[in-house]
Amino acid sequence: MSAGKAFKVLVTHPEVPQEGIDLLKENCEIVQVQSVPINRAELLEKIRGVDGVLWGGHEPLNAEALDAAGPQLKSISTMSAGIDYVDVPEVKRRKIPLGHTPTVLNTAVADLAVGLLIAASRRFHEGRKTIDNDKWENYHLNWLLGQDIRDSTVGFYGFGGIGQAIAKRLSGFDIDKVLYTTRRRVHKEIEEEFNAKKVDFDTLLAESDFVVIASPLTKDTQGVFNATAFNKMKQTAVLVNIARGKIVNQDDLYEALKANRIFSAGLDVTDPEPLSPKDKLLTLDNVVVLPHIGSATKRTRADMSTIAAHNVLRGLAGEPMLSPAY
């Protein structure tokens, strides 16, 4: 280890923004994985003997990686809000502090969610296709009519930081009210601010004009948006998913959109990722699909690397992390 550097830290991705790396460099010797996509063998070799890890990608963080590191490993932070690729019970069992970077990406994800909501409800993708296919019709009055946001009921499946940031933005569109389905009720002040009411899943589906998925992926949320759910939604409803692809049964979504059982969908996440260009979902006019770019702004990614670095440093110092995952 180089003189004067107390700890050795692995950064598992070559594109982690410099802001976070510079913070770590002040007190730590840095080792960095250089391959993209990440070469697992390189990662497992470089993780050997490190004290901390800034986990930059979405590779599986599991017993294999922790075993390769060795027993001296005392601090890990991901650079993401969702941690479904982490074997959390395994990290916990070894008593290793684990951080992640939620809140800091709320703004970017919420902005994108509103963009998707408008794009899906106002038929952006379908409209563009008419131009590409020389089908622009300027002689009809009822052509490409979409759904209004004003006076609508917006339902949130999951209403944490990101859901609330989306609700805050949508309040500027003069929506009527917010419904939300969560395990725990949010604070009364938050309900009052957004004119929000906690309802069960069936009520959320039946009464919402827009349904926004903003929950973590867990064994309880996986696949809950299936044919049964779509059949309970309004035929004019728009679905937006900025959470995780696996919360939606994509085959059922395809059928619901194809049959116009719901109006449209806007997705920043799919199952799998990346989605094949030949996927049947992409043949539909009434779905807008983005390649999981919710947090993809320069400022947000820099902030994520900074928070992740602070998490790692605090874990190494035996202090509570800035944003602990448990």
TrEMBL record:
Molecular function (Gene Ontology), one example? NAD binding
User: Is Transferase one of the keywords?
Assistant: no
A Pfam family:
2-Hacid_dh_C
Q: Which residues does the UniProt record annotate as the domain D-isomer specific 2-hydroxyacid dehydrogenase NAD-binding?
A: 114-294
> Which is one Gene Ontology cellular component term of this protein?
extracellular region
Query: What are the protein's UniProt keywords?
Result: Oxidoreductase
Q: Where is the D-isomer specific 2-hydroxyacid dehydrogenase catalytic domain?
A: 9-323
**InterPro entries to which the protein is assigned, alphabetical:** D-isomer_2-hydroxyacid_DH (IPR050223), D-isomer_2_OHA_DH_cat_dom (IPR006139), D-isomer_DH_CS (IPR029753), D-isomer_DH_NAD-bd (IPR006140), NAD(P)-bd_dom_sf (IPR036291)
Family of the protein in this entry: Belongs to the D-isomer specific 2-hydroxyacid dehydrogenase family.
This protein's name: Glyoxylate reductase/hydroxypyruvate reductase
Q: Which organism is it from?
A: Drosophila melanogaster (Fruit fly)
What is this protein's gene name?
Answer: Dmel\CG9331
